[in-house]
Each structure stands twice: as structure tokens, then as C-alpha cells.
Amino acid sequence: MSDKNFKRYTITSALPYANGPVHIGHLAGVYVPADIYARYLRLRGNDVAFICGSDEHGVAITLKARKEGKTPQQVVDQYHEQIKTSFEKFGISFDIYSRTTSKTHHETASEYFQKLYENGKFLEQSSEQFFDPKENQFLADRYIKGTCPTCSFPEAYGDQCESCGSTLSPSELINPKSMLSGEAPVLKATKHWYFPLDQYEDWLRKWILEDHKEWKPNVAGQCKSWLDGGLKPRPMTRDLDWGIPVPVEGAEGKVLYVWFDAPIGYISATKDWAAATGKDWEPYWKSDDTKLVHFIGKDNIVFHCIIFPALLKADGGYIFPENVPANEFLNLESNKISTSRNWAVWLHEYLEEFPDKQDVLRYVLTANAPETKDNDFTWKDFQTRNNSELVAIFGNFVNRAVVLTHKFFEGTVPMKNELQPIDEAVLVDVKAGIKSIEASLEQYKFREALSQLMDVARSGNKYLAETEPWKLIKEDKERVATIMNIALQISSTLSIIAEPFLPFTSGKLKEMLCLENADWKLAGESDLLKEGQEIGKAALLFEKIEDSAVEAQVQKLMDTKKANEAEAEGSKVVPAKEVVNFEEFMKMDLRVGEIKTAEAVPKSNKLLKFTVDTGLDQRTIVSGIAKHFTAEEMIGKKVLVMSNLAPRKIMGIESQGMLLFAENEDGSLKAVSPGSDAQNGATVA
RNA sequence: GGCGAGGUAGCUCAGAUGGUUAGAGCGUCGGAUUCAUAACCCGGAGGUCGGGGGUUCAAUUCCCCCCCUCGCUACCA
């Protein structure tokens, strides 16, 4: 933990990629915690720049545009607006929400690159890349489609097969085709600028693993894994027509790699913010007394902990992040959130379907944030947390305090008389609670901080239950005055300390109590409201969420699931392949074989090595079926063998043929078994 | 397979430089209460701390092996 006295804070949260709306996973992982942190710091009077914006470059945007028949600019304009608006409505208090297509950013990123270039920080390297001769354009991996070598899915992308999930490189695809022209791509040399990450390895190792031992285990562990694996130079430029042009001679048709320009987007956004507010941006990025914190999801760890810091180091003028509190992922009703499968709770939809309930979602996402491991969001849990925590504990306490004050003292803050031990005790409790919240927030333990906030409300309820003002009123109104005064002071404290977590509620509560001075420092004081001061009417801070509302959401997800299944059903059967003529068919030597020996291939978890009696000979065949069959159960089985397939080395073993299996749509393999009376070597035709 | 992160009450999670009865919230059961959105408050039940070995007077906490989940990464003719 750093005890340094920081003069200002630069808080960044991951730039959302502008090819889709924001969902609860993004919120729980990044934006809600970042917002809590930023609001807390501001409440304590700190100088804070809370920075974000849309990430609008990269291949995925161009693909999306092409698919929808739009220009990339139209795509990012649409999502940028949508994302920006929903963040605003949700109460994420960015000081600026910018975008990477802005002029400032293009200039900033371009200059950044140029400076590194001029200082010799890059390596120039040529390599062979796929090129579409008809469109006269280099092809990103995702621009190439072909048949998956693993599962024969004919529409696999050059980087991944969406059917079986294997990671691919374009050269592995069978019958690769350019998605632009449909032509077969050719290999062609192209030059790129590589950033030699390996040169920063020692520095990174010390900076992360020695100087920042306080980083979260998941973050530090991930970094160590990368460092131990050895860093390699990474190309920082791409052949693409959407992005920031590489500002170097001989780089026509090339743009900066999206992960080069995106983090620099934090800097550009800070510049825009500074310009708009008449500040100087530089201290926020270059001064040692600035604390820089990146809020991100775990998928971004390598970029924010390795690549970007190394780029900052290469420039030499920048500070480094003090911490990168990356969160894990949030699942939805036990399934991974998926944009393409529409398995998500979209923020813009939530805002419409649960109007005025921003804080409920903020609360649930914080209480169940994936801080140490992946977590699950369920609508049932959403309902329970609202009904039995927000309504029953927080809302209820405030309501009791305000209603009783109106009942007994006509809505004015009654006079506090001599305090009894129980009064002192509850006030001490509340103050201790605030200290704990501060400590938790400073360690990025938002879940814990939130539960400590609820504990303060619990103390309030307990205080009322123990002092029973509704009974005492008959005999000792003076004593009740003290009790209600204290209950109102606690409510006021709640309105202050809830602000980072539940800003809308905090606002409502302050208004109800007519509380004006609401610095964090005042929280816990017993004279936040003055005696004789009027307070407003009781209004419910939270309302119950009925079963029907939750059931409707679950139903919506079920419908999505059904639609997905229907779609999968439609594409379940792999489409027919091209017609082959009889001669081609007869070229294949298919025959019955018998497995004599079988063993797992060391260091592989998919491969089994067999000795097969093909009637012709005993030969070695390696097959990737270990996930479906054990070596033991295969011994003695009759199998179909493609025996004249060209031999191929797999993990150093020469495989002389291929075993044939049936593959179901879910990827599971089923034996195709000749009868036991089929002879070894019997031909199949 | 390698690396990383997790596996603690029905659910969501704390915790431990090894040491008396392993914690919290929610749920559940019982009680009390009626100011409050059938809410609050009190109490009970509920865990061989993923499995197996080892070190130790003592391990859930340290070491080794194994299993499961998630992520990154490699093999899949």
C-alpha cells in the first residue's frame, strides 16, 4: 500500500469497444467499481480526473460495418452515442467520455508513435501476410474464411473457428477465401513496426513483481505468467484502412494497431477534459504526485500491465499506474455472458425496463462483484438483495426515522438531550463503520465496503429496536427527542457515505432530510442536522420488486436461449460438401482395422497413439480423441481407417493414416464400428 | 500438457506469519415486537474449510500428489 500523499488522481476505466452496447458484465467488472472509487475520492475533496471513452478502431468494427452495410464511422457513431447516454443515465460520473476517433486522439496517438519512431524504439520487420489480389488489400486474420481443419466447419475465421472454438491461423484453413472478394488470398510481403517488449522485461518484472506486491493475486499472477513465458516483439501497426494512419514514410495503407492507440486514448481524453475545463493535462500523466489507477476486466491485464506501461516507459515522460485492480468475469444465470448470443442484460434495456432503479443494479453488481473470481448474476438474487437488503434494512431504517419524527415532532429535528450509553455506543459504531469503509475502498474492496455501509444501517435499526421510541413517547418525550435526533443524524451519515455506491438514493435522502453540507469528512458527526430544522416528508427510497418483474426477465432469457437453440438447430448439420466424382472417391483407401495398442501421447491432452492392424500392416496412427475415449477402451476395437492419407507428423510422431469417427453437433465423437466379424483389411466402399 | 486464478455453511463471500467452540450477509427454523414497504430486533440449526498423503505437540492455514471450475497457451489429418 502506498502511503504517499498524492495531490491528484487519474482514474481510467477500460474504453468500451464501440461495436455493441454495454452490459452488466462490463458494469460489474469495470465501471461501477471505478465510479465508486472516483466518487469517493471527490467526496473527500481530492482532485480527480475520471477518464473514459469509446474505443472505435480495429478490425472488428470494419467487419461489423461490412456486415451491416454501413461505414465504420456510422457504426461507431451509433454505439458511441448509445454507450455514452446509458452511462450518463446510470450515473457513472466520468469527467469526460471521449472517443478514439476524435481529432485530439488521432493527433496524440500519432505523435506518440512518431516520437518513439524517431527515438528508435521500434524494429522494422517484413513478413508474409495474406493479401487479396482483387481488392488489392492485405487481410486481417478475421477477414479470411475457410474450412476449419478441426471440425470441417466451412465458415471458420482465420483466427478462430466459431463452431468448434479452436484457435487458428489463416494458413491452417482449408480453401481459404478472402471475405472481401471471395478470391483465394495469396501471401505477400509487408513491413511492420514492432515494439520490442522483450527489452522491457527486466524493468517490468521489477516494477510489477517487486515494487507492487500489493496488486491483486489474479493480476500479479497473470503478469508473472506472461513474464515467465518471455516477451516477444509485437507489431504495433496493421494493414487496414480504418484507424490512425502510421505517421511514417513508406507506411501508406497502414494504421496503428488498435491496442497501441486505445490506451493512449486515456491521455487524449484527459487532454480534451483539461481543455474544456481550463486545466493543464500534463500533471495528470506526468507528475509523480499523481496516482494513476486503471480499472479493467481480466481480459485486458496484459495490455494495461505489460504493453502500455512498456510504451509509457519507452516514451520516458510518463508516470505508471499505481494499481490495476482488474476484476474477473460476471456470468448471467450460470452462463457466460455473450454478445453474439445475446446472453446479457443490456444496460440500455435495463434502464428502460427498471426506470429509476439505477441504484438497485449498482448495489447488486457491487455486492456480487467478481473481485476475486468469476461470479454469477441471477435475477432471483437481484430481487432478494433489493427486497431484503435495500428495502428491508437501508430504506426501512430511514423510513422509520423520518416517519417517527413526523409523528412525534411535526417534522422538525428534535432537541438532543443528555446522551445515554446506548446513544454513545451507536455513534461510536457508526464512526467505526465509516473508518472500515474508507479502509476497504482504499484497497479496492468494494464488496466489503458496501457490506460495511449496510452494517451502518443495521446499527440504526438495532438502535431503534432497543430504544423503542414508539413506546417511550407516552412517558418521556424528552428522551424520545434525543433518540430521534440521533436516528436522523445516522440517516444523514448514511446519505453521505452511500453517495459513492448509491448516488441517486443519496441525493433523494439528502433532499428528504434537507441536508446541505455533505462532505465525507462530516459523516459520523452527531450534528449534521440542526435542532429545530425542518425535514421533508417520508418517501420510500426503494420499493419491492415483485416476482412478476423478475420472472419476466428470466423468461426473456429463456426466449433468447430458445432462439439460440433454434438457430443452432438450423445450422446443426454441416452443409454438404462439393460433389466428388467416382474416380476421386475411389482414390480413397478406406478399410477396416483393429486397434492393437493404444496409449496417451505425453504432453498432450487430446492425442492418443495407436498401433492399428490394417490387414496390410501394423501402423502407427495418432488421433485427437482423448477427450472422448480412453486408450484402454479402444484396444481391440474394430475401426474404420483412411489408410492412404499422406503421413503427417504430430507432436513428433508420424501418423500413417486417420481413424474415422462420427462427430455430433456438440463436438462429441461417436465410434463408427464395423461388425466384429469384419476382417482386418476389409475394404470399405 | 504448461502457466495463472479459484474450490470454506442451502446461496454469495470473509478468514488464517499454523494454535482455545472456523466467520458474515442472505435463505431457513423458532422467539419477541408493531414505529416501519408482513419490514426491523433476538436466538437456533446448518461446515470432516475439494480429495489423499506428508511436516508438526497442533493444518482448513505450510509441502507433495490428485480431482473440479474459469482464463491464457500448445498438440487435434
What's this, in brief?
The chain has 685 residues and is of the alpha+beta class. It is built from 20 helices and 25 strands.
Helix-strand blueprint:
Blueprint: E1 8-13, H1 24-43, E2 47-54, H2 59-68, H3 72-90, E3 96-99, H4 103-118, E4 123-132, E5 137-138, E6 144-147, E7 156-157, E8 174-178, E9 186-195, H5 201-210, H6 217-229, E10 234-235, E11 237-239, E12 254-256, H7 258-277, H8 283-286, E13 290-295, H9 301-315, E14 330-332, E15 335-336, H10 347-353, H11 358-367, E16 375-377, H12 379-409, H13 421-442, H14 446-467, H15 469-472, H16 477-497, H17 503-513, H18 547-570, H19 582-587, E17 590-600, E18 608-613, E19 618-623, H20 631-634, E20 638-642, E21 648-650, E22 653-655, E23 658-659, E24 661-663, E25 669-671
Parallel strand pairs: 1-2, 1-13, 2-3, 14-16
Antiparallel strand pairs: 4-5, 4-9, 6-7, 6-8, 9-10, 11-12, 14-15, 17-18, 17-20, 18-19, 20-23, 21-22, 24-25
Helix pairs in contact: 2-3, 4-7, 5-6, 6-9, 7-9, 11-12, 12-14, 12-16, 12-18, 13-14, 13-16, 14-16, 16-17
This protein binds one RNA strand of 77 nucleotides through α6, α12, α14, α15 and β19.
Structure write-up:
The termini are far apart. Strand 1 (8-13), helix 1 (24-43) and strand 2 (47-54) form a beta-alpha-beta unit. Helix 12 runs antiparallel to helix 18 (547-570) and helix 13 (421-442) runs parallel beside helix 16. This protein folds into four domains: 3-113 and 257-327, HUPs (Rossmann fold); 121-239, Methionyl-trna Synthetase, domain 2, CATH 2.170.220.10; 351-363 and 377-522, Isoleucyl-tRNA Synthetase, Domain 1; 582-671, Nucleic acid-binding proteins (OB fold (Dihydrolipoamide Acetyltransferase, E2P), Beta Barrel). It has 685 residues and is an alpha+beta fold. The protein is globular. The protein binds one RNA strand of 77 nucleotides through helix 6, helix 12, helix 14, helix 15 and strand 19.
